[in-house]
Structures are given as C-alpha cells and as structure tokens.
Write a structure and sequence with these properties.
By secondary structure, the chain is mostly helical. It contains seven helices and no strands. This is DUF4199 domain-containing protein.
Length: about 180
C-alpha cells in the first residue's frame, strides 16, 4: 500500500509544480498572493486524505500507526518536491519574485497594519529589515521550512486522519483460528 501513498505524493507534488509554474508564466504577481501560499498545502492535504481512504479500503485491519504512515507519506514526498521547486523558482527560474514579495511586504506597512502594535522606531526597523531582505530562499531556509512543515501541518493532519481512518475494533478470529491457538 505504501506504493500508492508515494504515488499520490508524487502526483500532488507534480501537480503543484505544474500549476505554480503556469501561474508564474501567466502573471508572476499572483505567486505572492495570499491564496497561493496555501494552495500547495491544501493540495497535499487532499492527497493525504485520499491515501488514508485508500489504505482503509485495502486493509482488513488498519492500525493507527499504519494509518498515520499512509497519510503522512504523500505529504512528505509532495512537500519535498514543492520545496525544491520553490527554491529553484525564486532563485533561478524567476528571481523577480523576490522583489515582488518584498514590494508586497512593504505594502503591508504602507496600509498601516502595524501602526497600533509597533512604535515608530520598531516600525522603521522592520521596514529597513524588509528592504534589505532578498525574499529568495536559501537551501538552509528551504530545508528548515521543509522540516518544520513535516510537523505543522503535515504531522498534525496525518494524526487526525489516522485517528479517523484507523480500525477501531480488534481483528476478529474465526473459529479455525481460535482452535489453532
């Protein structure tokens, strides 16, 4: 069954890459939109759900640990593909995305979102730090982000799906099984 989980992860990761690449070609300003930051996660959660559902169909008894593994593998594989693509997208394919992300971040300050939270000095320091940031992920940042995402949301969603799809009753023994024991 793990093969199905890996395949779902590969399909989800590949779909994310293709869709994000097409969106970048059409209008790269859409890449830094709020919805695009959650799109990969939502697609990976769908793959996790499908994998857990398929595992439930394939096994007579699905232990919690097996249900967790089947739900977690697609996220692990698909998110790895997405993070590698994201690194190459921002650093090599379309380096302009970093500048667009910086502009979007500075717009938040212009809209006054932090005016009531930060002092003027803190606000100026954050604006200066934002201007200096390249908004292009390094390999270390990509790897750290990948590892963190394995916990939240990957591990958390896999735990929830495992709790839902596990078999709640012990496997029943037939009379022939009980005679042998």
């Amino acid at each position: 069954m793990e093969k199905k989980s890996v395949n779902l992860g590969l399909i989800a990761g590949g779909a994310i890459v293709v869709i994000m690449f097409v969106v970048d070609i059409i209008d790269n300003h859409m890449m830094v939109h709020f919805a695009m930051s959650y799109f990969p996660t939502l697609l990976l959660i769908v793959a996790m759900f499908l994998s857990a559902r398929e595992a439930k169909k394939d096994y007579n008894h699905l232990a919690f640990s097996d249900a967790f593994k089947e739900a977690f593998i697609p996220f692990m594989v698909g998110n790895g593909i997405y993070m590698i693509f994201n690194y190459f997208l921002y650093n090599f394919i379309d380096p302009e995305l970093g500048d667009i992300a910086r502009e979007k971040a500075l717009e938040i300050f212009d809209n006054g979102v932090f005016d009531n939270i930060l002092t003027a000095d803190q606000r100026e320091l954050m604006i200066e730090t934002t201007r200096e940031n390249t908004f292009r992920p390094t390999l270390g940042q990509s790897f750290t982000g990948y590892l963190f995402s394995l916990i939240l949301p990957g591990g958390l969603v896999a735990l929830i799906l495992a709790a839902i799809y596990r078999t709640r009753s012990k496997p029943s023994f037939t009379e022939a099984d009980s005679d042998e024991q």
